[in-house]
Amino acid sequence: MNKVIKRINFRLVGQKIYSGRTSKTLNKLVFVVLLLFVSAVGPMSSFGQKMQVNDLEYFETRGVNVLVFSSEYNGMFFDEKTAGIEIIQHGVRTSTGGAIRLQNTPEQWDLVPKVVDRKVNRENNSIEVTLTYEDLDFNSRLLVSSKGKGLEISVFLDEPLPEKLEGQAGFNLEFLPSAYFERSYLMDGQPGVFPKYPSSNTRIEPGSKKIKQFAGHNTFEDRGRDEFIVPYQLATGKIMVLAPEDPERFVTIKSMDADLMFFDGRNVAQNGWFIVRSLLPAGKTGKVLTWYLEPNAMPDWIRTPVVGFSQVGYVPQQEKVAIIELDKNDNPLKTASVFKVNEDGKFVEAFKGDVVEWGDYLRYNYAKFDFSAVKEPGVYCIQYGDQRTNIFPIGPDVYAGTWHPTLDVWFPVQMDHMQVNEAYRVWHGEPYKDDCLQAPLNHQHFDGYSQGPTTDTKYKPLERIPGMAVGGWFDAGDFDIQTGSHNSVISSFVELWEEFNVQRDQTYIDQKTRYVDIHRPDGKPDILQQIEHGVLNLVAQVENIGHPVRGIIVPNLHQYHHLGDASTETDNLPYNPDLKPYETDGVSSGTPDDRWAFTNRSSYLDYQTAATLAAASRALKGYNDELANKCLAYAKKLLEEADEAVKNSGNESDESWMRLMARGADLNTVLQLYITTKETKYLDRFEERIWTILDQSGQGRDFGQMFFASRSLNPALKAIPYMNDDYKAKLESYILKYKASVDEMEKNNPYGLPISRSGWGGSGMVVNAAITNYYAHKAFPAIIDREHVFRGLNFIFGCHPYSNISFVNAVGTRSKKVAYGINRADFTTIAGGIVPGLLLLKPDFLENKDDWPFLWGENEVTIGGSAEYIVLANAVLDMIKE
């Protein structure tokens, strides 16, 4: 029956609708056919496998999963498009956000419901979720039950809808635009094509009609406008069919009572999705809304195997193991082959070997194909069954240039307070000449920032802080300065300078004229120039504010979601309260758009910054002696002040992981101060503290423990050249414990690496672990094998779950096509940036979308992660020299 209806839809749509000869009679016929089947058996429902609630507490049938609040909305970032009712259809998450929402097209900072209760009834094949909007005193229940081949979604209200939510509250289900581009839809038989770009009509409503956003912020309150944009629906009806021509994306929705309304959320925000919505009725209780949802499930569907390998390739002497990710209904083949591409264009089999099954991990089955025997330089591909991968090289120099785009392109583009040019392109003008104002007291900001009851500075709220329009990098895909991230980057760059002697010069950087030109050498090592650029902002913080600060960020949401040229996010004129908004005297402005500094003091941040400045002082010596001397003086000052603050805090008994990390924050500080000054008081303190911290950091298969163990081992390993033989002998026992945790990780997943299960992809954890393994291998080669270093880099380059693309933009044969950067609205990338990678959609779905850049947990490039990637790339090059 399902096939019959699909043929009817395909023939009608293909012959008439797509040809432009649509008639009202024909449209009614399509609707009547659908309605007859819906009424008789449920939409395409009586034939086929029923959805069941599985052991992981979500609905499943062959080829389709429906998650029901396996993940909740985030109380900090609100709608991350990873919560509510979500559809995974034929291996791709195509829908999210099924919940009671208060807008037709909610934005990220619009209010989200909190889960009060979630009940799973496997016997009845149902999941019930109780939701609340606490501030609005509004509760609702969602009951999702298996019916036919789909699901019935019912909304229950114990009390009538509050009057202020009438016409506002409704059930929404969002569909990923990129999954439906170039596909059609039918609403009650009326045809439409999913728009590639938002172009539907909108209207303006007064701000008083909009339910306030997070913490009272307002996305559209710009230029004195208290209003917001409301898109008109693209279609309205009772039955909506999405992509009837594509069995992999075919979904049917029927509303039993209220109308279905179809919206394009991208009219309001570039990261919006397509939304199907029904309003909740006023004055009713009990079951107030019912949908029938049926994602088409292809019979006997099996996901195409993912053959994971390094898109960059391999050096001849390393292990070469492809990891094959298989559908749980698939069986691994016995063998696979490697083909070499000859100069005449012919593919010649160079190796054939066994495929060895590894076992299950999360939702897939895995196997390994070891082709380490292939050592001859050349261009190769892997053949697994009828699937042939793209090409990759084997040769002695395959890793040589892998980090160049990151240093040459990505970091220059992130440079704050500079105009950045690349050939014919200006990435951005000189931004934030108006930096910055003291943040107001007791203020809950967005993106994790808040200011407490004091400023911890000499400045009054919203008073100008002088001297701050200098140096720094944009932290990630937005335009704030985060001091912790700066410390990480500068420390990594010092490491590159001292450990690997990186002398590369491909960027022109002029601090006097605030100008950067990419691909233009200027006779100075780029690493030193980047260290100087980052340090300038840290030193400005200590000099002008008195201590390092949490960060510097724009005050308004209508600025924060800015995309494109950073120099247009503010008017670049210092705020003058004596002028009216948008009024200027030529040197100042009455527009309150200047960034705010969030200045509550942190001992941990003081320690971290002191370590960074102590290390930077060495690198800058002989390059910028005045700045180097300031760095050392401020490093000593911050250490003393942090010690005094910790002594007076009385919190040293707190054994939480975060507190443990903070208690070890002084370790790297005193180590760096010793390396710089050679004063033994710093070395004595380091040796006194390191063993306690290593004992507390723990080892084991737990990802968090392994991460902190790795963080603690890094300074311990880097201290070896400054210690005696007894120190190294004692450290060996900790390396053996760490090796045991590494071995345990190899049993945990087929990649043998710490794959993140948090709300942020795990590329950083993998890179950091591989760097630790490099230093451990260097000091204890008999314990930690070099393959533990190669493995981390190859994971980043494509040997990972979900796909086999390189997570470093523009590096490798196939790499990320889109990323969450300042240009994300253009669906492009900035060369060299490393994305977070794999995001776990609870309970078992690892994802990294390469057709939708707006999922920051998967695709947002950060300065800290990109700098550490350069370190790992150079560590591998150093190891190859062995």
UniProtKB/TrEMBL annotation:
| Any one of the GO BP annotations | polysaccharide catabolic process
Which InterPro entries does this one have? 6-hairpin_glycosidase_sf, 6hp_glycosidase-like_sf, Cellulase_Ig-like, Glyco_hydro_9, Ig-like_fold, Ig_E-set
In alphabetical order, the GO MF annotations are: cellulase activity
Tell me which UniProt keywords the record has, alphabetically. Answer: Carbohydrate metabolism, Hydrolase, Polysaccharide degradation
The UniProt entry, under Pfam families, shows:
CelD_N (PF02927), Glyco_hydro_9 (PF00759)
Instruction: Pinpoint the Glycoside hydrolase family domain residues.
Output: 469-817
Residue ranges constituting the Cellulase Ig-like domain according to the UniProt record: 305-387
Which family does the record assign?
Belongs to the glycosyl hydrolase 9 (cellulase E) family.
* The protein's name in its UniProt record: Glycoside hydrolase family 9 protein
